[in-house]
Amino acid sequence: MGVSEEEESSLLLDEKLIRFMDQLESLEEKRATLNSLIEQGWFSMSKARYSMGNKQVSALQYASEIEPLVCVNDRTQDNGEVQFCTERPTQKSSKESAKDLPIEDVGPQEEGVRRRNKPKKDIREKEASEDASSKKAPEANPVRKSDHDPQQDPLKWFGILVPQSLKQAQSSFKQVIELSAEIATLQIAVLNTRQELKDCLKNKHTLQKKGSATESR
Region Disordered: start and end of each range (predicted)? Predict the structure, then answer.
């Protein structure tokens, strides 16, 4: 026995309604987990500030150049839905970053080749002037420290031996980034399913009106 258009529309409507409710339930759970991770991260951050001091865990320790360790990208799937995902950019090794740094010559440079036949007095005076200039050269041209790696682990900004609470805060906020991308994707899916549900409901009402009009005849 074949299924009428009205029954088929009702089955499709029920299917989309069940999917819509499942998506809402999953979205509610992920939002609760997100809020819990944010609270846990800030609580761990406050514990780290209490143990290390407010000034030791603040924006004062940020590097001069900062590059993101995680990027959030959006992708459009074949069905037209948008999916958000997190990606970690490739990090340069220490050797590659050292190659990019400019090489500076530090210290006095010889102006030219000295002549052989010179009086001993002139030679001694020139050597004394060179020694004096070599002592002053490091003060005038100090050796520049190696530039800070912008993709370094942010925990190293606050010292080598950081408390466990600061590591826990970093772990919580890393999970927050991953979960935020999932929530954004799920929110778009909920909106799309909601629109499909409205279209199916409108189609069902149209079929019901046609059926009632046919029966009245």
Answer: 82-154
Strand, coil or helix: 159: coil
Backbone torsion region of residue 84, taken as left when φ is above 0, otherwise alpha when ψ lies between -120 and 50, otherwise beta: beta
| pTM as predicted | 0.62
**Pairing outcome for strands 71-76 and 82-87:** antiparallel
**What gap in Å lies between CA 169 and CA 48, rounded to an integer?**
9
Angle separating helix axes 5-52 and 164-216, nearest 10 degrees: 160
Domain extents in the chain: 5-90+162-216
CA gap 96, 90 in Å, rounded: 12
| Residue-by-residue pLDDT tens, the chain, 217 positions | 456 777 888 888 888 899 999 999 999 999 999 999 999 999 999 998 888 888 888 888 888 888 888 888 888 877 777 788 888 777 655 555 545 545 545 445 555 555 555 555 555 666 666 665 555 444 444 434 444 555 578 888 888 888 888 899 989 999 999 999 999 999 999 999 899 888 888 888 887 777 676 666 5
Nearest CA to 43 out of 157, 177, 162, 173 is that of: 173
What HEC string does 177-203 produce? HHHHHHHHHHHHHHHHHHHHHHHHHHH
